Amino acid sequence: xxxxxxxxxxxxxxxxxxxxxxxxxxxxxxxxxxxxxxxxxxxxxxxxxxxxxxxxxxxxxxxxxxxxxx
Amino acid sequence: xxxxxxxxxxxxxxxxxxxxxxxxxxxxxxxxxxxxxxxxxxxxxxxxxxxxxxxxxxxxxxxxxxxxxxxxxxxxxxxxxxxxxxxxxxxxxxxxxxxxxxxxxxxxxxxxxxxxxxxxxxxxxxxxxxxxxxxxxxxxxxxxxxxxxxxxxxxxxxxxxxxxxxxxxxxxxxxxxxxxxxxxxxxxxxxxxxxxxxxxxxxxxxxxxxxxxxxxxxxxxxxxxxxxxxxxxxxxxxxxxxxxxxxxxxxxxxxxxxxxxxxxxx
Lengths: 70, 266
Prior knowledge:
The structure holds two protein chains of two kinds. Chain A is mainly beta. In chain A, 10% of the residues lie in helices and 37% in strands. Chain A has a five-stranded mixed sheet, with no helix packed on it. The two termini of chain B are 39 Å apart. In chain B, 48% of the residues are buried. The chains are: A mainly beta, B alpha/beta. Chains A and B meet through strand 5 of A and strand 4 and helix 3 of B. Strand 5 (57-65) of chain A pairs antiparallel with strand 4 of chain B.
């Protein structure tokens, strides 16, 4: 079990310490999200190589409709 | 940029025939939004980013928008309250969409949603250095507009009136000053309610308009999108045709002499 902060909330991740594993646990489609790990953007080609560590902070963002603060 | 020949709108390295930019928020469904995008013939749409929440699933926007071959996606930084947040949002938006366009939008106060000029300037400075095509939403301030142009922004996007207010071109006098001095496209962003206001913005000398709420919340969004597209063309055509000057007093449009009486009128 690994404690992460995901989008501001604590998340206990029980799978392997990889980004694909976390995205699966969150039901997030990898091609529909962009990820920041401890303030660094993780590009898609690095998804499989990046290793998550205890107390990492992640921001996982998706596209939504919006023009101006809607 | 007023009085130019009818040429495409050039933003960064890309040319656009359409001078109507659409926001994608507030539509009742993704399908309704896509239909309105098609009806508007827009070639540039802006999308927002938000935190993924598995308990509140949202329909994916990227797949349906990126399937429209003539439409470029411009992520915006809506929700950012600082330059740092906007910078990170822009990087995430580029990672998600592959688009170099970014609409910089920083408004710290949800009550009035006025853009923060200082944070906007700082974010634009950083994003130009990262080779984004930077399009800042900004207060209608001619001094700030020149400062943002000097940074290398691709356009300036002053507000017509407050976001979602439908107050039209309440900043018209300031927009005229921005247009007069700008060497980059001036795009009115926010506040438009009626197609006639989009036509008026184009007649004034704006290079494009960005519309969201007025189309999204219309009873028939596709029909309203088409109406805005027509209005933008009408306004641009009128500007190219050369609008007559304003006068402080009446000017006769027919001769007032030698009609039934030999006494000339003055």
